[in-house]
Hints:
Structural class: alpha/beta
Amino acid sequence: MTSSAEAEEEYGAAGWLARAASDFLGQGGQTAVLVRSAGPEGLAALDAEDIHLLVVDPSVIDLATAYTWCEEHRALLVVDATPEGALPTGLSRNAAAYYPPLVDGDGTRPVAPAVAGVIARNDRTRRVWTSPAGRDAEVLGGRPAVALDSRTVESLANAHVNPLRDIGDGRLVVWGARTATTDPEWKYVAVRRSILFLEQSIDEGLRWAVFEPNDDALWLAARRAVEAFLLEVWRDGGLRGDKPEEAYFVRCDRSTMTQEDIDNGRLVVLVGVAPARPAEFVLFRIGQWTSSRPDPADD
């Protein structure tokens, strides 16, 4: 859906889904995929969709279940902190929590849908590798249910909860961009989402390998294709380093595949990228089947 009116017509103006869609789209999100189904069945309905940010009603879908789905589908789960401002349990690198909720009449409403819209807006205007926080990450028209002082902001950040803060000119902004993990490699939302973006893009960009034999010619072609893509990302500012070799490397040869991989038609590409500091590489592997894969009917 691309408008609040569509969501209200389908789900009713007072429904959780319609209000969440309105908050997401109102902050700059462009397309919302809504599912009114509980538990894993509801998430399964999203399997065929291209989802990068997930927000769920925790009274309907368990956050741990939603988090597992995000790990499997290269998405970020955007959640509200607990009413006390604590990080919900069961979350890690593919999740980010925010506090406080927003004012809604005499009560409050979740902040996660609005923050997801802010992140989507940041993706479009500043790219996925820029931090969705600070003065450019305004929650348009939002009012916090709780005013946060500097000490509380610091305490929330130390607890891996991203605060929303009035910066003094009447604007409410997202004032943190940390994931829910304690792993320093995945501390920041922009770094984690950059890697998810690169993994997804490279995975999709190598689908043609399924028609090729798993040999030296394919390995060279795969390396060149991935290097060409990463060169463009580096030129756009998505990777750190004064020169390409400080920003990324790509390997696809007998050092990345076993003989069993080769015999069974499994192409494995090892990629190292520097999303935060030059030459401090984050490593990930992309695997694709090739035409050398044995016919399952032969088993």
